[in-house]
């Protein structure tokens, strides 16, 4: 007889096990074989058998679905022998979940448990019930925009999406999928979404590498993030640093007063417009493009504010790793696995991520040369880092190995660059160690010995969760410090920047959402010392920053002026030509479908 009441406990057939008593608990379901045996599960056509799996929590269930009626196999493994108990024809439903050890950096493994009953209604009730329970789990997405870079990595973007697409389907997440056709395509799609279109999605997923994610990030924030620019390098250079630079500001919440601009005009031709945010929409690679305007955006423009501003607490970005380095995924999940990342997305995992705003200033007298704004999630680097990206473009045909080849060439060239940096120092910052200028040597500096115990960012990180609001970069609690000289490289790590070559990343203890970046200045030094520094980066547990020629400053903003006519920056692995740059970090500017690395 069919029943209408929701089942709290029923006897069903479980595929590969036989008859079980299935029980609904507040936090999941459990099953107990009537015939004491073992439990089996299957995944993507493969069988995973476990003697201990007799339950699954709703937090580990990503989908449940009715399937066609058919055979439920009643066989089970029993101490190495297959015991066949006959199959039963039944109505069926499948519970899709995953097995993953908490606190372990191994990939999560998909599991599917199939149950059957002779009455369809019993199966329907179980499905409805489990669905209702998983809906109570923290905000799982319903609709996503998915952008697939088909050529990323070794051309594995499409294949990576094909691997994980069934997960989205089983989780009943609607996906609008676009395969990119060229560099800049993802940027165009995202930046031209009207607010209404954006609000129809819970997030955007990039299937590709850090470069595709950077395009999505820039497209999203180009017209939706409103903030004052950081000071221009020439402004700080003109005003000098330290307390003076604070005094050159009025009370316009960080914007320069017209006096500042007039004062600077003789040096750089900056106009007051240069200091208005969001005047220019730029491609991540530095090509300025006209922003397409939708009706909605016109409306927004009239209201002077986008109706979906950033930061907000609902819209999330996700990455399915398929690129050549995948530093953002490695630094935010601890593992480079498309299935684990897809599960993080459909399960609605959410964490805040700091984003760096990189403003490129031009020195040309043309009033059309407005500053252009770019965003980076993981890294901004100059010198060695910029040169490697530039050189590697010549060898694109080699695939990901071109970075090793280009890195070797650039290392052998051993170029250093004259530059002037000004960085913001927190008056109470224990990590900023302004080491002596232009000092090189083989003896490790004492910098890190002076730093407090190094807390590595992880799931539920206490540092990132601190509610203390990050002070405005113009607050009284900070001052600008200048550093000038010849540098082999200048790197700004917004996150640890872990990758397969650098298992701890550039800065092992960088946090994902503390509002700081780590400025690493590598001063000109003999080539063997630089090699020593680089090789330390490749070793787990080493200390690549503990050299006298390396300065490490934890900061919220810095400016840069190069004395070169052409300077190349590396933003999240993409090239940006810029001789004058200001960078500031925005704490938790976006939400990511992730929960932090397992370390
Ligand atoms: N269909 C496409 N054809 C060519 N380039 C594309 C396409 N889609 C995106 N791109 C661009 O390719 C660049 C690299 O993308 P991504 O980082 O995702 O892959 P990757 O394999 O890790 O790349 P790389 O090895 O260059 O770092 C980005 O600048 C991105 O904008």
Automatic annotation (TrEMBL):
UniProt keyword annotations, A-Z: Kinase, Transferase
Region described as Disordered: 249-307
SUPFAM superfamilies to which the protein is assigned, alphabetical: NAD kinase/diacylglycerol kinase-like
A single cellular component GO annotation: membrane
Xref: Gene3D superfamilies: 2.60.200.40, Probable inorganic polyphosphate/atp-NAD kinase, domain 1
Signal sequence interval, chain numbering: none
The protein's name in its UniProt record: Ceramide kinase
Lineage of producing organism: Eukaryota, Viridiplantae, Streptophyta, Embryophyta, Tracheophyta
Species this protein is from: Ananas comosus (Pineapple)
